Amino acid sequence: MATVFLLVVVLYGTISSQHPGSLHFKHDDQLLGRPLYKLDTMWPKYPELFGGNVFGVAVNHHAEVVYVAQRGDTVPKVLAFTTSGDLLMSWNTSTLEMPHGIFLADPDSSSPTVWITDVGNGPYGHCIKQYSPSGNLLQVLGTPGTAGTSLNPLQFDQPAEVFVHSSGEIYIVDGDGGVNNRLIKLSKDLEVLWVHGERGQGLAQLYIPHSVTVDDYQRVWVADRGNKRIQVFDAATGNWLAAWGSCFTEDAPYSVRLTPDRKYIVVAQLNVDQVSLLEAPPVGAVGECRVVSVIHLPEDVKPHLVDVDQKSGALYVAEIGAGQAQKYVPFHQGGGSFY
Length: 339
What we know:
- This protein has strands at residues 9-11, 16-17, 25-26, 30-33, 37-39, 53-60, 65-71, 78-82, 87-91, 99-105, 113-118, 127-131, 137-141, 159-164, 170-174, 182-186, 192-196, 209-214, 219-224, 229-234, 240-244, 257-258, 264-269, 274-279, 291-296, 303-308, 315-319, 324-330.
- The radius of gyration is 19 Å and the shape is globular.
- The two termini are 31 Å apart.
- Strand 26 and strand 27 form a beta hairpin.
- Strands 1-4-25-24-23-22 form a six-stranded antiparallel beta sheet, with no helix packed on it. A four-stranded antiparallel beta sheet has the order 5-28-27-26, with no helix packed on it. Strands 6-7-8-9 form a four-stranded antiparallel beta sheet, with no helix packed on it.
- By secondary structure, the chain is mostly beta strands.
């Protein structure tokens, strides 16, 4: 029986925003496939607060706070907004040079922390930093100011992103264009548990690993950007499980994040200005890659990394080209939790 694929295109409004030192972008977003998200044109309330190149975003769904990492010599490196769009605070810390990835760990605990990868070449670069929610530096992984390949002592070369599991175990993709092309798993005591670090196109080889997440079935999902694919590994053993490349013939995956219902994997694709939602496989075989929905952004917005509110399901996109972060909400959201 022939399968009929229904293509739905939804246009939802046009807004304009002007950011100091950035281009004037017109937001004519399009949804292709199943319409899952719509743009929240009221977030943030004052988009002119963005003043640099926005590289990453992280959400604390419990405290309802969104952290945005940006670069620039005269701008705060981190802005913290409420999920309703108000600015809470900015971090004017000298300990951050060039933030890349940002992750919110332990959101349901009394002491959540913000982890940031720093790809700068100065005395604080090439390392991963753990901060308090107010921006106090708590811990540094790696050797500040020194790029390297060592695992003992731990060194990084332009670490792209970090994912901290609820168990305390840490997953790192190291190599946003540096000499390393590594996926590293650390114990909560910072012991190296396993590593994949061979550059190449083969199974379990990596080239510019850019984003990492772990699902409920102990599978590690890696945006293998340079190879235009996602690779999947067993979280416990590090064994290779699968690779998805058929969804990325036009552009590489830059991010991997899961929606709260674990039905979709959210992937930013910078060079084609789109965010794709892929069908997340249940327990068992990973199977083939399938695109369910696509958000087409305006030209040169350049979505880089994303995060998903694990309560409401809201999607936040860090856009390098537009110099801003934007919020998308599920179509079915009526003020309650994502379902």
